[in-house]
Structures are given as structure tokens and as C-alpha cells.
Amino acid sequence: MADVWSGADLTTTALLCAVAFAAGLVDAIAGGGGLLTVPSMLVLGIPPVAAVATNKVQGTLSIVSALVTYHRAGMVEWRAGLPMIASAFVFGIGGALSVNLMPKTVIVAIIPALLILVALYFLFARGIGDADRHARLSVMAFIGLAVPPLALYDGFLGPGAGSFYAVALILLMGFGLTRTTAMSKLLNGGSNAGALLLFALAGEINWALGLAMGCASILGAQIGSRLAVRVGARLIRPLIVVVSALLSIRMLADPTNPAHALIVNLLGQG
Q1: pTM of the model
Q2: Which of 62, 63, 115, 234 is the most buried (most CB within 10 A)?
Q3: How confident is residue 30, by pLDDT bands cut at 50, 70 and 90?
Q4: 1 pLDDT exceeds 50?
Q5: C-alpha closest to that of 33 among 64, 58, 65
Q6: Is there a contact between 122 and 244 (Cβ–Cβ < 8 Å)?
Q7: d(Cα 184, Cα 260) in Å, to the nearest integer?
């Protein structure tokens, strides 16, 4: 069993719960809640593996909370969603298992560019609203072609996975934006739960802290998902743009990211 950090005093727990509340609210609408929680946990002295593993607890609870609201609003299609979530769960486990097998530095360098493309897509693409459009793939084709690579990535690394699921659902399944938000949570929840299972079996999770943060994120997700249902694309679209842009900036600002050195060198030459 790994050495799971257990030094969360009352003040630290309260601070992280406040962050988790905000993360749950944002994540329920646009994804990217980990942009708030994981760096906060690292700053407060939680080791990286324990931070990522414990964050899966609050992230999963946040997604479940949002899905309850979206289900009540009739926005979750369970007939198509159940095989999607099953596939995402299996490949999420595969992604978590492949952490030590894949070139993580290369992927970390590429992800910010993909997030910038997501932000630009939602910023400039026409016709993205709450109305559904023509699907380019059948449900089974989407499960076989689109879900596996996205779920593998979510289990392996994770930042921006919700945004990537959203783009795939819009482009390939023709979903409207509010419906996409609900269904992307279903997929994100499947791959997140797969990775959570692996972390739990490895003993990497601080359950007390994760559950405390999870309770706060449940409340935040309730507020965020209800706002998304009421306001729709007018709220979801700009928030996805902002979250994707901020997440890419945070990743590029990390000195350990290979793309960081490349940008610094380019700016220095300029």
C-alpha cells in the first residue's frame, strides 16, 4: 500500500472543501474542476499521487450529483448511455493501468494545444446551440471508435477529458450543447470511476479527505447543473471556452511540461 498523506487538519480540509464546492459547480457545466482541486491539494502539501487519487473521489461524486439533476430534466439517454458508460469504465481502467507504459511527457506537451483548439472551436464554430443536429455515427460506432481513446486518456491523465467528450458528442453524434453536457458527464463518470477503482485497489486514496471534499462538490454540482438546465448554451458555451483556455495556460505554465521550455525559447528569441 502506498504512503497516503493523512495530515489534513481541520483548516486544510475546510479550504479544500471550499475549493471542491467551486470545482463541482464549474465541472457540472463545463468540466475542468480538477483545474482547481489538484493544484490546491499540491500547494497544501499533499503528494502528487495521493492528490490525483483522492481527487477522483470528489470528482466522481460531483459527476453523480450533476447527473441526478440532468436525469430529472430528461437530458440523459440511458439506453445509449449505459453501453457508453460501460465502455468508458473499462477503458478508463486500461488508461490507469498504462500510466507507466505510455510516453506521458509527449502527451502532456500535446494536450494544451488540443485544449486551445477546443476553446477556439466553441468560440467561433457556428450552429452550436441547444438544438440537435444530424448524427455522423451510430451509437455503437461512437462507442467503438470515439469512446475508447478518450476514456484511455481520462484514465491515463485526465485534464480536459470532459471538453474532449463534449466535442466528440457534438461533432459525431450531433447533440445539442445542453444535452452534450449531460451525456459527457455520463462518459466522464465512467472513465473516472474506472481510474478510481484502480487507485482504491492500490491504496492511494485518502478517503476521509476525498469524501469531505466530495460532499462539498456535490452541493456545487447541484448548483452548476441546475444553472446549465435553466440557461443552456448561453452559459455552457462561454464557460467551456474559459475553462479550456485556463487549463491549457496552467499546463503550459508548468516548468516540467516540455512545451513550456519550447515557448520560453521562442519568446526569448523574439
Answers
A1: 0.83
A2: 62
A3: confident
A4: no
A5: 58
A6: yes
A7: 30
Q: Please choose, from the candidates 84, 102, 85, 86, the residue with its C-alpha nearest in 3D space to the C-alpha of residue 156.
A: 102
pLDDT tops 80 at residue 104: no
Nearest-5° angle of CA 185, CA 195, CA 106? 95
- Which residue is it, cell 478518450? 150
Judge whether residue 90 has pLDDT over 80: yes
Mean pLDDT, the chain, as a whole number?
87
